[in-house]
Here is the input.
Amino acid sequence: MKFTKILVLLLVLGLIAAACAGEADETTTTAAPGTTAATTTTTEATTTTEEPMAEVGSAENPVKVLFVPSVEAEVITTGGDIMKAALEDATGLNFEVSIPTSYAATIEEMCASPDNTMGFIPGLGYVLASNRCGVDVSFKAVRFGWSVYWAQILVPSDSDIESIEDLEGLTWAFPDTGSTSGFMVPSLMFAEAGVTPGEQVEAGGHPQAALAVYRGEADFATTFFSPPLTPDFDWAVGDEPEIPDDIIDSCAPNEDGSKLLCGPEDAQWRVLDARASARTDAPDIIQKVKILTISPEIPNDTLSFGPEFPADVRAQIEEALVAFAAECDTDDNCAWNQSIGNQDFYGWTSIDPATDSEYDSLRKIVDLLNYELEG
Here is the structure.
């Protein structure tokens, strides 16, 4: 199409040039009144051309990789740069890592830049973005074999809170109003229980919400729950979400601070819920903050693409991400585990293809609560 337009323009310019007998300007000749002499006026011909858009993935138009601010920004920045380098090496494309200020801002960015954005967004964010402008899901997270996760309610270990009903009127800390496990699903749980929390504290992230309870800034918090890694890797749906009482006192970060472990060395449990991300600031958080209950299963968070993202470029990125994650099959120190697989980042141990219909359960929640994402 561009070649055809250029050809037509050249033909037109050629005809103008021939008509003007080699002159560069368009000329008209008129006779002055009462004379036979001719006067000539000259008008310069002008043309306007529109600059073509740079191709997606070029240096002038890099692919925007968006991460929701659910954990520490420094962790996302460091891990995001590792992913950026891996994708650029694999595809030859250019990428730009960005952390919008909120879940809502992430969705707004994907809808405002529909042809060059990809976003690591939770299930709720995906549903809202899909409903709003047609954002399309590609992959879902896998965490230690689980393609689902849960919301959890955290309370002080020494409190008298024993049920959801006991939360009536109490101060609630949550990560962000756009968080699926931190806000949306708990909101439904409270509605079903007839509970109205009191003051609300938007903490800015899951570990920050857990720390609000630890520090006495909130009576309870809602965050994500991932099952603990048991010594036999046998945690199952319906099992107690909390670490067993007889080893809670032993829970502490390991020597290099990379994990939160409980129990004797030959039979250790590893904490993987949001409290583990707060271990640096609160190494005794398991002793001070306990799980009251968890929610029903939630579809895992997604990698999604803007609604007008070029299909060929998307296919390149998808192939590169699968290969990037697969490196960890043989190398625990792989770059993936230093990026989005880092347990202080999003903790994706792998990825699986996802379909839009898998998130229909969240669409029903959105419709039931008439939920709209706040900026």
User: Anything to note?
Assistant: The longest helix spans residues 73-91.
